[in-house]
Amino acid sequence: MFEELAIFTGLTRPQAHEVLVGARRREGTAGHVFFDQDDAASELFVLGSGRAKLTRVSADGRQIVVQLVRPGEVLGCGCHHPEALHPTSAVAIAPSKVLVWNEETVFRLAERFPVFALNVLAS
């Protein structure tokens, strides 16, 4: 099911399988928060199915929808900096499944499969 996502483009089936094995799966119904604004950002989150939104709380306390996210798109990634924080919150707006890779796994997979890293950056 997830192998059709754009982040797997250019990978063979066994390579895509190896990338998927490294991911944890999280699910949520509408309203489920996958991460909050200003949480530590040390993982890669990719929406596998469903719909989600990225929101940000403005200085005056209003919630602003920054982006609507479709399957295959990155919800958040802070793997590039050890002290990174999520600039937005990721909230399901329909029943959704998310693939989550920890920082160590992302770097290992990026070294083994550079096309995976490029696909993540492109999404």
Account of the 3D structure:
The chain is of the alpha+beta class. It has three helices and eight strands. The strands form two sheets. The protein has a four-stranded antiparallel β-sheet with strand order 1-8-3-6. It has a four-stranded antiparallel β-sheet with strand order 2-7-4-5, with no helix packed on it. Strand 4 and strand 5 form a beta hairpin. The two termini are 18 Å apart. The model has no long low-confidence stretch (mean pLDDT 91).
Write the topology of this structure.
Elements: H1 13-21, E1 24-28, E2 33-35, E3 43-49, E4 52-57, E5 63-69, E6 74-77, E7 89-92, E8 96-102, H2 103-112, H3 114-122
Antiparallel strand pairs: 1-8, 2-7, 3-6, 3-8, 4-5, 4-7
Question: What's this, in brief?
Answer:
This protein is α+β, with helices and mostly antiparallel strands and 123 residues long. The chain has helices at residues 13-21, 103-112, 114-122, and strands at residues 24-28, 33-35, 43-49, 52-57, 63-69, 74-77, 89-92, 96-102. 23% of the residues lie in helices and 35% in strands.
Could you list some keywords that capture this structure?
four-stranded antiparallel β-sheet, globular, alpha+beta, 3 helices, single chain, 123 residues
Helix content: 10-25%
SSE class: alpha+beta
Whole-number mean pLDDT: 91
Query: Which sequence of strands runs across the widest sheet?
Result: 1-8-3-6
Topology pattern, helix = H, strand = E: HEEEEEEEEHH
The major beta sheet can be summarized as: 4 strands, antiparallel
Question: Shape from CA axes?
Answer: globular
Count of helical regions: 3
Poorly predicted regions: none
Radius of gyration: 14 Å
How large a portion of the residues is in β-strands, by DSSP E?
Answer: 25-35%
**Termini distance?**
18 Å
DSSP summary, beta strand count: 8
